[in-house]
Design brief:
heteropentamer, A mainly alpha, B alpha/beta, C alpha/beta, D alpha/beta, E alpha/beta, A: mainly alpha, 2 domains, D: alpha/beta, Glutathione S-transferase Yfyf (Class Pi), Chain A, domain 2, 8 strands
Chain lengths: 193, 652, 324, 315, 163
Amino acid sequence: MKTLNLGESDPRFISEVEQRSGQKISRCYQCGACTGRCPNTFAYDLPVNRVMRLIQLGRREEVLSCSAIWLCAACQACAVQCPNEIDVTRVMETCRQMSAEAGLVSERAIQVFVKSFLGSVKRNGRAFEPGLMAGYMFRTGRFFTDVDLAPVMLAKRKLAFKPHKAGNGEVADIFRRYEEEGPVSCNLESDHA
Amino acid sequence: MRIGVFVCHCGSNIAATVDPAAVAMAADSMPEVAYATDLMYACAEPGQKAIVEAIGEYRLTGVVVASCSPRMHEPTFRKTVERAGLNPYLFEMANIREHVSWIGKDKEANTRKATDLVRMAVEKLRRDAPLHSRRFPVTKRVLVIGGGIAGIQAALDCAEGGLDVVLVEKEATIGGKMAKLDKTFPTVDCSSCILGPKMVDVAQHPRITLHALSEVEELSGFVGNFKAKIRKKAPYVDWNLCTGCGACLAKCPSKKATDRFNEETGLTTAITIPFPQAIPKKAHINPEFCRHFMTGKCGVCAKICPAKAIRFEQEDEIVVEEVGAVIAATGYDLADWSGYDYLGGGRFPDVITGLQYERLLSASGPTGGHVVRPSDGREPKTVVFIQCVASRDPSKGRPSCSGFCCMYTAKQAVLTRDHCPDSKVHVFYMDVRAPGKMYDEFIRRAVDEYGVDYIRGRVSQIFRKGERYVVRGADTLAGAQVEVEADLVVLAVGAQAAHGAEKLAERLHISYDDQGFFMEGHPKLRPMETNTAGVFLAGACQGPKDIPSSVAQGSGAAAKALCLFAKGVLENDPQIANVRPGRCVACGKCVKTCPFGALNIVEARGRRTAEVVETVCKGCGICTATCPQGAIQLQHSTDNQILAEVNALCRF
Amino acid sequence: MNNTEIMKNVLERASVLLAWGPGHDALHASPLFARKAHDVDKVVMDVRAVQSLAAYLPPLFQSEKEGRIAVLARPCHVRSITALLQEELIPVERLILVVLPCQGKLDMAKVMAACPAAESLDAAFVDGDNLVINADGRQWLLRLETMLSPACVRCPMPELPDAMIPEGCECVRLDGQARRPGEGGYAALDAFMEKTPQERWEFWKQEMSRCIRCYACRNACPMCVCRDHCVASARDPHWLSELDSVTDKLLFQVIHATHLAGRCTGCGECTRACPMGIPVGLLKMQMNKIVEELFGYKAGMDSKATPPLLTFEAIEKNIREKGK
Amino acid sequence: MPKTYAYYPGCSSMGTSAEYDRSTRAVCRACGIDLEDVHDWTCCGSTPAHVTDFGLSGALAARNLVQAKSAGRSEVLTPCPSCLKNMKAAQHHAHDPVWGPRIERLLGRKVPEDMRCASVLEILFRETGAEGVRALVKKPLTGLKVACYYGCLLTRPTALMEFDEPENPQSMETLLAATGATVLDFPLKVECCGASLAVVRRDMVQQLSGRLLDTACELGADVLSVACPLCQMNLDLRQKQAACRRQTKAAVPIMYVTQLLGLAFGLDEADLGLGGLIVDPRPVLAGIGARSEEAADAPAGGQDDAKAVNSGRAE
Amino acid sequence: MPILERRIIGFLCNWCSYGGADAAGVSRFTQPTDLRVVRLPCTGRMNPIFVVKALLAGADGVLVSGCHPKDCHYSEGNYYARRRLEVIKRFLPVLGIEPLRFEYTWVSAAEAKRWQEVVTAFTEQIHALPPVPRLPDDTGIERLLRELENSPLPICGCHAGHE
């Protein structure tokens, strides 16, 4: 295991996570309730409490490049469980956003799926399931994803053939403004006490 | 008036963020200030000496000390100025530590603030009058509320010290929580073997009057002269006749009564004696379950009783006891954990509290000391202990550490291995807190000799799997989620003040914190006192405590009561209300609002006027705020003094 | 029996009848201590009888230790008397209330404004709906309705309801026709509160700078029972300085209003008495409104009630709890 | 005068969860709950937007609140807990110092704060309740053993959803018990099924849903009642995929709570979209009448059944 | 350097809030420096007129704090205070005084954190308002005379520049 140099702690990272998530990270006392309750821990490279600890230590790189933040299903179990009332799910989501912005994504497939989904919403105003699946398969090269399900879905009329358009371009406007604005900025001058 | 101002550095406590010399210099030019200086430690011997000398040298007639909170050292400095020949009430304090130096870092602003506070103190002092205490006799009797180990110790020590003691216990027997314990840590000696003799001592001591099944309903009066109204609940048995033979218990047909002594791990009869060593060993009827009370048709106990002691028609009795001091020793109860849904919140029969587990371990308990599952009576193969339930949990409004759970969990884990040598025992903990004598060694023994498995992490879920329970949590040291199938789960539920503690506190006029624990006079220096003179605290009613600490505090509270009575007479606090008859129009508004009945309208020299009963007045000042003419003034906190303080701040 | 006979009859049982008699001119009435039957003939009880006689009662009872005292009172004055009974400052068994049906009271400021010559009048009398003033060799006919004090116009209780006769108090009613009841409420205050806070502050700054610290407002107030012991003129406690400062003048008005919280019956005597025409009654009106809102209480309605600031509820219905 | 709710169907109603949409409308009609579709509704952004940027997510969800408000509605009802959470989160984030201003900029207007949002389960529980359901039951589901599964988002996060107990919710049980069904104590009722990762991490999802299905089987559940389109799709459509990770192989029908209520109300099966389910519920439903008699004799509750299943299984 | 503080007077009961303020100090809970505390035995001692007196005398804010209801050292003092202080708070607007200049609250001796929060929030509230309006004589010669009346010595200048 790598030795962590405590002098390399990045206080701006802690502050950014705190501001974007609205959570006070120092309140975590490492009881592990989040890890105990998390349904996806078995698939994580870092258990949730370690993610929290690494944020406390200001380890930007280790946190933003871990897979746990991408495999989190945002099921909120940890947030409900935390005895210190930290919304851990929000912290995980925040790290995922920051990971994408920093280009440290470890689970590319998930990011691609997210992009496909949002692309579909941007184009149509609503999510169009077959279209986004097609886009996802195309971009990841995972051509056999769930094709086993297609026949049964078609038989049960669970796949629409045409996207529904809605929103009269308002949704596209939201995306346009989002792209123009770029990642959200925090006031990192104020030191976190 | 010639005023001396002494500004304390308190080492660097004040001087680090306030400039005491600048404050003293500013004070030098305040009205009637004849001398102003700064001192390193005003409260220490050299500081006090400097004050005494300055009083003589500069012929000072009043003193201001700017230092810590008056709640800390006002009595100290009053004595100092008294030593120098001044009336102790010609003294004021400016709190420039707790209210200034410790809460702000801006030295300039702090110095300005400290100067303002000194100016206020000077202005107040200029309007102080010398006050003199009155002496009054005391009733040398002590009321001890609560018959747990702390109350027992306090009662015995007071009685041994020559005081008459009235011991009031809510339950039908004394002994409290300790009587429910099987063994005690870290010695693993039998709880009832060491408690039992003390309980017998209480019963036999000629100076102790015991009221069991009783509660204090009202406390009136003041230190030295309290009157306590005590409700003795009807046991429906004439305790003068009852011999505790237990014949009625054997024959009572209602066998499904709640067994409070056994923490509801079993059932008992409607007429019952809590446990074989109960003091007093007298039967009482629980009317909620008694067939006679429910249907009117029964009376087996009355027929069978050889002493003819059953009294279905008995009613509660009110007795009034006159005492000079009160020791509250009402102990604790486990916190309500029904909100812990993820632990079942009480839905699972085999997820029980530590106190319930004690009853299962105890040879006098419902299972005769056999560790079995409440659901099916089978011996558990795997027992999981969970610490910090309703402790250290801000999300449930329970942020504090209950202190003794780490140790009793270790003890129970060890006993489990003793009782069921084939069992596997896991303990989920967050931190092990074992700072007492031989405590940490005991934890080590649990791990090394008894093979108890300690897992560092919180449990986040318990769910049923068939007849067993899946306990899921984290092992943060392994960095993993862990799961174990358990037969029995024991929760170390945190402590809160005993049920009804808040209500009692209101009756005793003492404060309590958000967990219901009674507030001590000072967190470090007055742990046995309250802010109400003559009311002392012992044991877990003041905060969670283990047995040795409870015993120590019980003895300490007894010592406080003995000190109080050592003088024979007491002096009152002269900071009480005073009527200027010339200004009073006898409108009676003060009489209406006084909470203590300390005011009367009397006829004096042909005029009606209000009058203060000096020993009854407690100096709250409600009357002063009520009187439109300002005819009644709270001495040492007069309208003019408060106005002067306001004016001192709003000069320009 | 006509009203005079009724009053003479009352005087047979009482050592004195406190009433109104002729004043310094025909427009004014002054307090009259009627002790003999023939004194009763001088009683004035029309719109000119404006002053509340309640204020005289506590000292009168104190100086006259024997016998009963009767007092002539309008219904609004009865509320003040009830409030005094609440504070046990007058003995109910020695009191006889003589209540007249109220036709309203003149607002002298309005009269003076309508007829400045009334300063030195020759004669004044009520004739039907009009007030007739002879002065300067001319005659003025003023419509009574327009000359009454605003409180009277809005007064909801020109006739005393039986329920408001203080418990255990003898009450004699006089004959006569009362005005029709007004709608009550706090119209003058509500109008004032329409102003911005800055305007209100400026208003008091201006008004109080005209105050001459004569304390007529206090002396007229039936509930100012402190009499010679008022804090305004005390050095211990020294709430107010002796300086001619607006702060002290305004603070006195606040003290007055605060001391009256839950006790003021809204009789309006303070404003009436002010020689500078400062509407000091507004402050008490605000206090009454607050007390009514918070505690559902109006002073002087029930001689057995406890004023709300001299008691409490463990849980206050209308106060939002702070903290925790 | 019944209140009219703005109805937000959510994107999955157009495809994978059409039968949830249909049964919701049918049951609400039966209960006298008036629904009016949000005009020109758009995607709430779902989890992808939420994990990308709270501002984007907030703006996408809030657009629908704006639409509902401009139609004069004060409360939005949606069958999908994920959509519901996004709408509530948008309102919550509107007060956040970092995200509030951003949402407003992206949306181009203020987030309506006074709109209330609720799931169909919450509205049925609040407005109709057990009493109301009991009054409407025409064909009691007597003897049908139902395990109620809420999934993660219906009750969590507690401060946002403000509905039922987060760890042991009872609303679905209360409603279904009123239909005469036997409600089992399903211990994993708020565990995650992993649906949001269904496409990209099939392995994880199989493990999560496998455990849920196994536990339901062990309890002897005839059907699993759900209230979330993602859970339903995941457990129903992918039940075959999950089979490889399961200890038992029994198929469990996954039905929407609205479908079960609709059946009990005697609504037309076509209106409830029963045909859309992959694991066919009809065999277990057919047994309802027959089983009702034996159930009447046996002591109620799933406990005994659970024991029976357990004892038959090798430890 | 101009002094940016406002003049805030706190009236604290000795048993609860003064203790809470002490506990906040012991815990080193940093607070704004504007507040000056007058110690009362009980909020029941608090004559509501002190509030107006202080505001008219030039205090920018007045904060009263006592024991929580039911927890009064004298059983009933805070109950009386609650009524009287609520009345005076509602009375301020008729004078044209901003009612936010006055708050009353309950802080126990154990609530050090809460005391810090109360002081910080109230100080911020006062800073959000302009300085308290003054009546003409308060800055005038009478005021100075009054000061001189009490002080035979030159007036300390350390508070000058407050305005």
